Amino acid sequence: MIRINRLFMIVRRTLLVILLLILLPYYIQDWLSDSSRGINDPIKAVSADGEFTKLKIGKTMKIDESTFTVDEVYVTTEHILLTYTYHTNQKISWSFPSMTLKLETPDGQVLESHSSGSNGTSWGERGYIWYDMPEQPVESATIIYDHYDRHFTLEIPLMKGVE
Predict the structure, then answer these.
(1) Strands 113-120 and 124-132
(2) Which tens digits make up the pLDDT trace of 36-49?
(3) Residue 90: burial class (beta carbons within 10 Å; 0-12, 13-18, 19+)
(4) Which sign, positive or negative, has the C-alpha torsion 74, 75, 77, 78?
(5) Which residue ranges make up each domain of the chain?
(6) Among 6, 71, 86, 155, which residue's CB has the most CB atoms within a 10 Å radius?
């Protein structure tokens, strides 16, 4: 009986080690890879609207000790998709309140965000925000952040060749 128990113990431990060796590389790669976090695949989502324009932005704004960066803007005939990165130095912090971001056109039309998504990382989060297109075509828009006592504005192009 002792030999059978010892045999089952050895088999269980061997299986456990084999399964760990199989799964460990996957979880290490997933943990180290930031590209799969946050916004899934925005190109797949904007492609549903038809043709789109991708604009690399890379503009950054400080919020307290954290940094908010607009990475890219995708413009279709129906929507504007803004992707962002939020780096925070705080050990414990709230997620970025992306729904507080408004997009204002030069003619004063304020575009509210209708949906957003994000995914947390060890350094902050990556995310996206969807806006409807303005009533009239515009070359640029201003991101307005007004949350509690924190305010900033950031101008972004909505057409290629506009700074």
Answers:
(1) antiparallel
(2) 554 566 777 788 88
(3) exposed
(4) positive
(5) 1-33, 42-157
(6) 86
pLDDT digits (tens, 9 = 90+) for 101-121: 889 999 999 987 877 777 777
Of 94, 99, 72, the closest CA to residue 85 belongs to 72
Contact between 141 and 162 (Cβ < 8 Å): no
Measured from the Cβ of residue 85, the count of other Cβ atoms closer than 10 Å reads 22
Q: How far apart are CA 39 and CA 128, in angstroms?
A: 6
> Is the pTM here over 0.85, yes or no?
no
Q: Per-residue DSSP letters for 58-97?
A: EEEEEETTEEEEEEEEEE-SSEEEEEEEEE---SS-PPP-
| Distances, alpha carbon 70 to alpha carbons 11, 13, 21, 84, 115, in Å | 53, 49, 39, 4, 17
Strand partners, 27: none
